[in-house]
Amino acid sequence: MKKKFNFKAKLIGAMALAAGVCAVVPAALPQTAMAADAVSASVPTGMYKIVRNINVYYINEDGTTTFGGSAPYTGYVSNKKMKFTFPEVKVADLFKDGLGYWKPDVETIPAVTATYDNPPAEVNIYLRKNEENFVKESKVVKRTIKYVKVDPDGKRSDAGGYEDSVTFYRTGYIDAKGNKVMSDWAGEYTFKDIEVPEIKDYTPDRAVIKGKTVTPSSADFTEEVVYTVNATMPTPLPPNPGPIPVPAPPQIPEGWYRILTTKNKNFSLDVNGATSADLANIQIYKKNDSSAQKFYFKYRGAGFYSIYTASSNSNSALDITGNGKTAGTNIIQYRKHDGENQVWKVQKNDDGSVTFIAANSGLALDFAGARCQNFTNVALWTPNGSYAQKFTLVAL
Q: Among 57, 59, 152, 344, whose CB has the most other CB atoms within 10 angstroms?
């Protein structure tokens, strides 16, 4: 919280304006910063004005400084050679509302003697955040998305989903009496639109979950998408459509791996929520040691693999939604059946990374915009050799 400085302007001293004597009053500050007892005066006849400026800067967290305001003090002398002493000033007295969580680099500005011909130098005060008095509060607003299947008999069953959230912050300080003085909650955030995934043999009640705008005062909320079974069930995919390539020794041994993004190895392929449920979204998320980021590679021959998820105890696989064969088709977790939409060619690249090519379409596994950040979505896309399609395997 950046404090808007509200300087006091005090009458430091006053003496009769006669020959050989002097007086000091503060120069006029901007109206918004002037104290109630501020004194503004024009130069008296036959007097000379000497000004001492006290400037305040605060030091930002990145080390830069920002000007906070100025408190000029003015003295008057009856001749140019006459000496005038500006008295000592306590820094805390410059601020009407106190220093808050700011700490000055000096507590006191010493007195200084000057003349009209040799005026005093400007004084710069630097304020740094006083961590002992600093207070930070947060509020989290969470969105929960639930996918529910409804069978012909009306029975509802969980079909997956995920959660995302936004955190709002405000800052403040502990005053001299031990009370918290906080800034107001502010800001708003709009959750992104979510395309509803396909579920084989079911139709959702909407195609897109529209993003909702929230503020710090908003409550957590849930969006539910209901899938109803289709009237005519389509013919299911055969367990292994098409011929399986002739087996060849695997370049990558079967086993458990973590699949990291080559662009930033602090992020990993991830099953949202580490759930075992069908239709759980596959995404990019910061590397951790959870089952959501562990995958078993089962060799199918000729460089092709099925990739099973630890979050489902290897009962589910990386799956191309609805056996889609177009760019943009979403990648999910689904119970394993080893159909062509669960078979991937692991293609090695010259830089040691790998690219996953879908057996059903020749499209590549791709994370949106090569963004190494939590909840980045994963889908099929035209192979292009970019970082969005390069991954580094780490054996577990």
A: 344
